[in-house]
Amino acid sequence: MWDRVWTNAVVATMAESGAEAGAEAGAEGGLPFGMIGAGAVAVAAGRIGWVGRADEAPPAADVVDCGGMVLTPGLVDPHTHVVHAGERRGDWEMRLAGATRDDLIRVNAGIRGTMLTTRDTSEPDLYAQSARRVRTLIGNGVTTLESKSGYGLDLPTELRLLRVSREIGRRLPVDMVCTFMGAHAVPPEYWDHPDDYIGHLCDVVLPAAVAAGLVDIVDGFCDTAAFRGFTHAQMDRMFDAAAAHGKPVTLHADQYSLAGAAALAARHGALSAAHLEYTDAAGAEALAAAGTVAILLPGANYTLFEAKKPDVALFRSKGVRMALATNNNPSSSPCLMPTAIMNLGCTLFRMTAEEAVAGFTREAARALGLLADRGTIEVGKRADLVLWDLAHPAELPYRIAYSPVCTVIRGGETVFAAAQELLVLNS
Ligand SMILES: [Zn+2]
Question: Considering only CA atoms, which of 418, 414, 422 is closest in space to residue 74?
């Protein structure tokens, strides 16, 4: 007897090629989205115990009739800067009026501006502002998200950002993966000697954050000198320090120029590399060979009027795994809706609908090193599920800025419910 079964659903298992969960569990073999057209999912002790056809569903203490709606894995948002203070609508208005990146830098916009605000914000206030955004993400289907530091760029504020991420994970029904990103930008104190800043991060800030149990992954921003990115030598040093602490790495790579950053990430065995607008064939081959997931961030591309786009056709042809993320941040991607990003991934970057949904489920979980536990609807994984008021999973990316979440389920328990139509039958 199972604890609960969700039945009469279009189950988008997102299992690879529909074959794995699919074949055995009665999926229409090889269908896109690993789809079971009239499916059911049974759960016990917070884990998925059975997946298959509704007419073969096992008995359970609770039976939830999904009314033919779409059931997907809980969404995973693998790249956010969601913990920050203030907003930056002024940056947006300046860009609308034609301001360039240099114009914005001159007025302390972007990362620099948010750093100044965040340094001046108390921990309770930072928590309150950030938790509000995370609640919105949960209501839009997110059950696991990554959250970066990088708006402090000094010891006390970097630790404060990471503590707030951890605290959100303790108090809200969501898993927070905490990423140390001291190497987000060069702070004003080190503007003319960035090597010393990297040394400070490696020798002081990262060890303190690790000792406090606040670091799951280490990130950085690598680009050419013209874009004030950290150099290969500086990122090598940062990533060697991460490895010395046993922490995996990810990298903001090749966003504004071809900096060889994708290959650098691959060389360090990075879980993922993000942006990749300028990454070339050699970079794509390196990512594929290393199993480094490409995290594409069309929200930033859209907000920055960036004409150069990541070469999705190239990545696909080389076998690079592609994830998507909201990249929630106040300046370049003020977005809290994964389905809107799926839509941009398709319309701006020409991903397929299936790639876009996989980008926020299976591939996002892979990008965080969590694929064994979540990201698909397969037996043994944690029962993180989202029920959508839609008839087909391709409608998730199809509609523009539409997020018809009915129920969000984490570990088998409902953590968000938007609609009352569900018929719960006690059998
Ligand atoms: Zn980012």
Answer: 414
CA of 97 to the centre of ligand 1 (A): 24
Listed in sequence order, the DSSP H helices in 245-290 are 261-267, 281-290
Which of helix, strand or coil describes residue 92? Answer: helix
Distance from the alpha carbon of residue 23 to the mean position of ligand 1, in angstroms: 38
Whose CA is closest to 381, among 34, 140, 29? 34
CA dihedral 399, 405, 406, 411 (to 10 degrees): 140
What CA–CA distance (Å, rounded) separates 178 from 162?
7
How many angstroms is it from 79 CA to the middle of ligand 1? 6
Confidence bin at 31 (pLDDT 50/70/90) = confident
Confidence category of residue 337, pLDDT binned at 50, 70, 90: very high
CA-nearest of 107, 81, 113 to 94 is 107
Angle formed at CA 150 by CA 148 and CA 153, multiple of 5 degrees:
150
Å from CA of 7 to ligand 1 middle: 38
What totals of helices (H) and strands (E) does the chain contain, helices first?
17, 17
Cβ 284 vs Cβ 277: under 8 Å: no
Instruction: Judge contact between 111 and 331, C-beta under 8 A.
Output: yes
* Ligand 1 midpoint to CA 295 (Å): 10
Evaluate whether 370 touches 51 at the Cβ level (below 8 Å).
Answer: no
Among all chains, which residue has been given the structure tokens 């990103």? 181
Distance (angstroms) between ligand 1 centre and the Cα of 301 equals 12
Q: How far is the CA of 406 from the centre of ligand 1 (A)?
A: 29
**DSSP annotation string for 113-182:** HHHHHHHTS-HHHHHHHHHHHHHHHHHTTEEEEEEE--S--SHHHHHHHHHHHHHHHHHSSSEEEEEEEE
- 152 near 160, Cβ under 8 Å? yes
Cα 335 from Cα 317, distance rounded (Å): 29
- Measured in Å, residue 17 CA sits from the centre of ligand 1 at 29
- pLDDT value for 58: 94
383-418: pLDDT as tens digits: 999 999 999 999 999 999 999 999 999 999 999 998
Q: What is the pLDDT of residues 302-335, one digit of tens each?
A: 999 999 999 999 999 999 999 999 999 999 999 9
Centre of ligand 1 to C-alpha 396, Å, is 23
